[in-house]
TrEMBL record:
Source organism (scientific name): Micromonospora polyrhachis
One MF annotation (Gene Ontology) recorded for this entry: kinase activity
Swiss-Prot/TrEMBL keywords: Kinase, Transferase
Organism classification: Bacteria, Bacillati, Actinomycetota, Actinomycetes, Micromonosporales
Pfam families per the UniProt record, alphabetical: HTH_24, ROK
Protein name per UniProt: Glucokinase-like ROK family protein
Length: 392
């Protein structure tokens, strides 16, 4: 599929992912005639995307000139979570030149959140991180119409439905913008620089305030017709379960997520079944999924049971996806990945037991390598892709 892409896009991605490359090597790796390569490089130099970077090592004759992405290229990467904002400004190689992270409540609405994003980006400019942005990439914690650049009926984002996120950022920063679901950008980030590097078919499962799944098929993110593929948090796992934020009963997310785990921890504390949670609740007045993780590390039986129950439910949903899509890897990320190997062991156990042996014989189920940076990394990749797409 990548070979069907325009030459300029393949060339710019190669320089993004590999750094400075000689003209001769570029022609070889892109499998195009040298004159065509030279003409394309000259065109991209004139447009400001590419710059010369000295001479390459000799290959036996006249030394070829190295080319690289223009050192002044800058992309903004924004990862909006349910309770946090992460913003990075990166260069053409997607290396951070400025980074900001702070708590924020997505429920305060798009105007408040995006104003803060713009303030952080303008601060980065004032601090010398960039003169101008070439593109902005954003991930949001809810369904997104990728085509239109707007969130669509996001369950945990009141006020964001159809809000023109892409249009607002494009107007504010004078450059193209792209908006995607947060789990898709995490999958893109993990594919670019994490454990799924060079894996063409995998599932990235985000377990946090909510649960979602980024789907990579044949080297590309699969978003579905309307952009909501992978919304596995709203698959029903218990017909008699609790009400979910989406309005349905017994969704996976209602039974196992950061919010659900915190509620169950409070119940365990108040019922006396978890001394560790009772002690923390008395001291703090509230509990989070992190408290459950720490309780499990300390050996609290109720906390271990809560994590295993959640892993079993998630594993059951993933077993169905494995039988359906036959991925070559499952990556677990998001805030609840900090529940660690108790969670991972339970997911593996259920997936391996309930999926067909042919589908699981060589199926690693692993934790994200990038952790909290998966989102901003993927947003930077998307931003660079949309900027490179302009080089026509």
């Amino acid at each position: 599929m990548r070979n069907a892409e325009p030459l300029h896009l393949r060339l710019l991605r190669l320089l993004r992912d590999n750094g400075a490359v000689s003209r001769a090597e570029l022609a070889d790796r892109l499998e195009i005639p040298r004159p065509r390569l030279l003409a394309e490089v000259s065109r991209l130099v004139s447009l400001g995307y590419v710059a010369e970077a000295g001479l390459a090592a000799s290959r036996g004759g006249r030394r070829s000139t190295l080319v690289e992405l223009n050192p002044s290229l800058r992309f903004a990467a924004v990862d909006l979570g349910a309770s946090s904002v992460d913003v990075e400004v990166v260069n053409g190689r997607l290396e951070p030149v400025a980074a900001y992270a702070e708590p924020a409540d997505i429920r305060t609405g798009p105007k408040v959140i995006l104003q803060r994003v713009n303030e952080l980006l303008h601060k980065a400019k004032a601090d010398g991180a960039y003169e101008r942005l070439d593109a902005v990439g954003v991930g949001v914690p809810g369904p997104v119409s990728f085509r239109d650049g707007v969130p669509v009926s996001p369950p945990i984002m009141p006020g964001w439905d159809r809000f023109p996120v892409r249009e607002l950022l494009t107007r504010e920063h004078g450059c193209p913008s792209v908006v995607d679901n947060d789990v898709n950008i995490m999958a893109i980030g993990e594919r670019h620089g994490g454990v799924a590097h060079s894996v063409d078919d995998f599932l990235f499962v985000k377990v946090g305030t909510g649960i979602g799944c980024g789907i990579y098929l044949s080297g590309e993110v699969y978003r579905g017709v309307d952009g909501c593929a992978g919304d596995i948090g709203h698959i029903q796992v218990d017909a008699h379960g609790p009400m979910c934020t989406c309005g349905n009963i017994g969704c996976l997310e209602a039974l196992f997520s950061g919010t659900a785990l915190a509620k169950e921890a409070i119940t365990a504390a108040r019922s006396g079944t978890s001394p560790a949670m009772a002690e923390r609740l008395t001291a703090k007045g509230a509990l989070t999924a992190l408290d459950v993780a720490e309780g499990a590390i300390e050996g609290d039986v109720a906390c271990i049971r809560l994590i295993r129950d959640g892993g079993r439910r998630l594993g059951g949903v993933l077993a169905g996806l494995v039988s359906f899509a036959n991925p070559s890897m499952i990556v677990i990320g998001g805030g609840l990945a900090q529940l660690g190997h108790i969670l991972l062991a339970e997911i593996r156990s259920v997936v391996y037991r309930r999926s067909l042996p042919l589908a699981t014989g060589n199926l690693p189920v692993v934790l994200s390598e990038l952790g909290p940076r998966a989102g901003v990394t993927g947003a930077a990749v998307l931003a660079s892709d949309v900027a490179f797409g302009e080089a026509t």
